[in-house]
Hints:
Layout: H1 2-29, H2 40-50, E1 57-61, E2 68-70, E3 75-79, H3 80-84, H4 88-105, H5 109-137, H6 139-180, H7 186-227
Parallel strand pairs: 1-3
Antiparallel strand pairs: 2-3
Helix pairs in contact: 1-7, 2-4, 4-6, 4-7, 5-6, 6-7
Amino acid sequence: MGGYLIYLAIIIIIPIWAQMKVKSAYTKYSKIPTSASMSGAEVARRILDANGLENVAVRETQGVLSDHYNPMNKTVYLSSSNYHHHSVAGAAVAAHEVGHAIQDKERYAALRFRHALVPVANISSKLAWIFIMVGIIFSTVFSNLLLIGIVLMAAGVLFQIVTLPVEFNASSRAMDQIVSLGLISNTEERDARKVLNAAAMTYVAAAAVAVLELVRLILIFTNITRND
Length: 228
């Protein structure tokens, strides 16, 4: 029982810690203006044009840290604060999302693989826990349902793992672009990198928790089959 409580605390604390870290970094550096005095929208447009992506639009979206790139309609969406304000955080986030647009243009293998996994991950995430719960509750009769649930969950875990190189690569491209195009100064480069590193930790935390939960379920299934 004690071990399970420790495990439960870990999978709860890791995501909360990651979210607090990114919010702290974002809040701090969203108050620091860039020397270039460019809004996130202007930063995104500048990088897109410099990379021959004039066809990619930059639009405002509601919410906080709701920034993303949609490959279906070739649009970079920036949250209102990042879209309008001239901050180090806004520049870093905008550049990161453009990094995904550049990946899309170059047909970056990890990004294409992640896109292919999206429908599979969406379906598996909805069905996995149904099979898992039924398989655990009625383990003496339906233990194979637990195995099906584990397989479905593994598809979601694979999506989380594939997301890591995609996000880290986008951040690397972002830093290269904002530095080479002179969109931030040398002193601001360190601050922009802190914002991107903090954001990356949320993906690392999500992947770590997903892997831990998958391993736990595999151990449960192993114990059930061993006792049969």
